[in-house]
Amino acid sequence: MGCSSFISPRRFYLSKRIAARLLGEHALSAIWKYQQEQQPNTALPVGFPSLVTLAAAGYTAAEDLEGADESELVEWARISNSAARAVLAAHAAL
Predict the structure, then answer these.
(1) With contact defined as beta carbons under 8 Å apart, do 40 and 63 qualify?
(2) Across 5-14, 22-31, 72-81, least confident range
(3) Is residue 70 part of a domain?
(4) Does the pTM exceed 0.70?
(5) Which domain holds residue 82?
(6) Nearest CA to 7 among 51, 39, 52?
(7) Is the pLDDT at 3 greater than 80, yes or no?
(8) Is residue 63, in this structure, part of any structural domain at all?
(9) 79, CA 20 to 30 Å: which among 38, 55, 60, 87?
(10) How many domains does the chain have?
(11) Predicted pLDDT of residue 2
(12) Residue 43, strand partner residues
């Protein structure tokens, strides 16, 4: 598992959150989630591609997608390659 870019604290906390969750460290994941949510953010708009799935994986803001790539979204958000491309295109259009 790898994050393509940690260009912001929010992205760093997201990566730590997901890594902890994958290791079954749910309390630690909750701490990283709290840290992530304390960072400035712009909520993803209603109608954004794969919005519910992204949110379940921890991607709730435009800033969470800054620097993300297709393989990251496929691995971490568990979406298809075509869905990941649609997410990245929609993010680029924000």
Answers:
(1) yes
(2) 5-14
(3) yes
(4) yes
(5) 9-92
(6) 39
(7) no
(8) yes
(9) 38
(10) 1
(11) 46
(12) 61
